Amino acid sequence: MLASPETANHSTSMTAPALSPQTSALRVAILASGRGSNLQALIDARDAGTPIELVLVASDKLHAPALRRAEAAGIVTLALDPKGFATRAAFDAELFARVAAHAPDLIVLAGFMRIIDPAALAPWAGRIINIHPSLLPKYPGLHTHRRALEAGDPLHGATVHYVTAELDGGPPIACVEIAVRPGDTPETLAERLLDDEHRLLVATVGLIAAGRLAFDGARVLLDGAPIAAPLRLGEERLTVA
Known about the structure:
With 241 residues, this protein is α/β, with parallel strands linked by helices. The chain folds into 2 domains: 106 residues, Formyl transferase, N-terminal domain (Rossmann fold), CATH 3.40.50; 110 residues, Formyl transferase, N-terminal domain (Rossmann fold), CATH 3.40.50. Helices cover 28% and strands 24% of the residues. The strands form 2 sheets. Strands 1-4-3-2-5-6-7-8-12-13 form a 10-stranded mixed β-sheet, with helices on one face. A 3-stranded antiparallel β-sheet has the order 9-10-11. Helix 1 packs parallel to helix 6 and helix 5 crosses helix 6. The longest helix is centred in the C-terminal third of the chain and has 24 residues. The chain is globular. The N terminus is likely disordered.
């Protein structure tokens, strides 16, 4: 199901349907650059009954393991090589036009390692989320585990946030915390956080699928009311902080 840059469906429209309370499965497109472990968590959630339909997995890497996971799960895939475009903006416009052709209600950035052009993001305001391995606003960008250790933080974690033009700067929706242990390395911290990252993403997408979460352009809304702080993931579910 891999669609090459030459054969993938093409659309010049950047308009997508508004997200509203779901009466059927939430149509989700996922962008990923790497192994796709968060994608796998969403596949498993779909198979377990979460009301989502995974309509597309797209990548900027032709050989991303995430694409192979998607193919194995029966999901349409798209690989688009940035080297074939004169500018980052041109690549992003093409990528998001092709994503729009699949009419997702929600786009999930799950290890998508690119800064996206603001013009490509604009039509998707409130309908695109990212999972980031830090307790935002701490440590946007790369090397978050190392930076947390270097700062001597007692807690580390992951955050799901709405995506805006600011790098990892959109409004946080939900987070999960873990304790930093003596002797932790960036690798051990990342490994211990990973399962909680998966649970956090699945729980957040589940709330969106239920029509309970929204973004009004400035605030995250839960059941129509603004939240004062990101929701927190406990042992079983997300709760108001």
